[in-house]
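User: Before I run my own analysis I want an independent prediction to cross-check against. Here's the chain; please return only the structure tokens and, at the end, one sentence I can use as a sanity check.
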Amino acid sequence: MGRGMRYSLLSVAAITPRVSLCLAAVWLAGCATNPFQTAPPAAPLSLEPPPGVAAPAHTLPQAAALQTLPSYADLDGRQLESALVRSREESQVMQDEIAALRDQLASTSTQLAQVRSAGMPPAATTAGGAPGAAASTPTATMQSAVAQLALPDLEPRFDGAVVRIDIPADRIFDTGTANLLPGGAALLTQVATELERVYPGHFVGIEGHLDSEPLQSSTWSSPHQLTAARAAAAFDFFTTRTPLRQGQLFLVAHGANHPLVSNATAAGRARNRRVEVVVYPERITGNDGS
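Assistant: Structure tokens:
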């Protein structure tokens, strides 16, 4: 072996321990610059935000969320709208009743002012003074006598110069007909008895009224025909089954032209379907009313 070769082998033997120590240190320390270490696989990119951080608005599935959410706001709105409609209808009924009461009060106030300006109550007058002529009962007497009517199921009221007794048509007749119910006959008998006791001989109007609903029966072509038939049925009952006489009764068919209250509610429509018995201050004094 030559001299040069021996020098090379000694150099390699001297360097090899150093290289071994360096490689061992790199392996133990995990040096990132280790040229012998393979790179780990890249982690997949996640768009999930860390806890407590909201996701960007453009990453949210907005359209799908809007489709799946229940429309509680719409449901509440419908309920509120329905309640508002009912409240408006009830308010309208109350306003109509108040208006009717105001009209009655204004009429009464006007008559009272006329009586006071005259300085004395209006005296009963006669048309010619002959037997059988009509006489008029003073307004104050008419009004005070209303409290004497024993009609607990009804509410007689003083209206201007007349007394009105509103009888619900549903308590007297079959629905949509002029056929008297048994209970209706008893009620008309009670009314006639009280009129003969408190207002004997007074002229009495029988007025038929309806609500604004279309007629359900083809028997009557108009509301006026039905109200006329009902007024005639009450007239026939009064003159054949009670002390009231033909000469003191007359009929009026109003149809749906004069509602007491608004027809917007079922209760208002039921109240407008009625027969009004109207007692006038004029009365017959002879025996020709039979």
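Sanity check: Helices lie at 3-29, 62-68, 72-118, 139-145, 182-198, 223-241, 266-272.
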